Amino acid sequence: MLRKYIPPVVKQLIKTTLHFGNKYQCPICGFKARDLAPIGMDIPVFKEKKVIGGGRRKGGCYKCNSRERDRMIYLYLKDKLAIFDSSKDLKILHLAPEIGLSKALLNIGYETYICGDLFVEGYFYPKYVQNINVLDIPFDSNYFDLIICNHMLEHIPNDTDAMKELFRVLKVGGRAILQVPISQTMETTFEDFTITDPKERELVFGQSDHVRIYGQDYTTRLQSVGFKTEQIDIFKEYAHCKYGLDPNEDLIVGKK
Q: Which helix or strand (DSSP H or E) is residue 60 part of?
């Protein structure tokens, strides 16, 4: 029997109607919900290593699909950096841009807001996203006031080279938001480049295209290329709010 086609708009309306409530409110899109949507993958290593930002959990917005880290970053940009004040003249680079967050930033109207990702065949990218390799960013040194690069470095074997390139294009006095999945129990980052089979990588690193699990030394790796790092407990400040943030996730900011 053929299933009746339901337009995506109707599916979205049904979903938001079913989950409407007052327990949570997304700061990005404003949707109020009685619960958060399931996100992530149920891979044992995420639980074993207590990886922040990984694993199957309830953390998504039913309307804009934002995750905990997207909402955390949005609050930091809005309340701490006043990014949404369009009178500011900022140059922003957003790599692997999150859909809801990038749309909010696009709406500001900054002249230089660059979204980029390394294009992979078979994937769909919005028209505003450029094909950019983080190992060879096509912009001058000291160009960007702000860089947003989340959950990208764990995919890159030579992550130190990527960090150096991010540091190069960041202006003196600029900030780079550099979130990665981090183990709460591992002091040292684990990587093994002899593991190349996608299925084995999923078991060992939590995802078939991951090449490491970062430990508590992640900020030391950033500092090794020149970043001054700051870990900000955003949840503590917004604990009384209903934003659905992860109480264990700090914001990692690199400064130049």
A: strand 57-60
- d(CA 226, CA 164) in angstroms, rounded, equals 8
Residue 9 confidence (pLDDT): 78
- Cα radius of gyration (the chain): 19
Quick check: 51 pLDDT over 60?
yes
Helix (H, G, I), strand (E, B) or coil at 47: helix
Find, among 208, 147, 146, 207, the residue nearest to 181 by Cα.
Answer: 207
Q: Among 50, 51, 4, which residue's Cα sits nearest to residue 179?
A: 51
Kindly report the pTM of this predicted structure. 0.93
Q: How far apart are CA 236 and CA 232, in angstroms?
A: 9
Beta-bridged to residue 25, according to DSSP, are 32
Give tens-digit pLDDT for 101-148: 999 999 998 989 999 999 988 888 889 999 999 999 999 999 999 999
Q: Of 146, 171, 177, nearest to 256 (Cα)?
A: 171
| Residue 134 to residue 226: CA distance in whole angstroms | 17
Residues 131, 116: contact at Cβ < 8 Å?
A: yes
Residue partners of 246: CB distance under 8 A and separation at least 6: 52, 53, 59, 68, 69, 72, 235
pLDDT, one tens digit per residue, over 149-205 is 999 999 999 999 999 999 999 999 999 999 999 999 999 999 999 999 999 999 999
Report the alpha-carbon distance of residue 76 to residue 233 in Å, rounded: 10
Separation of CA 56 from chain center:
16
Phi then psi for 187, rounded to 5 degrees? -75, -35
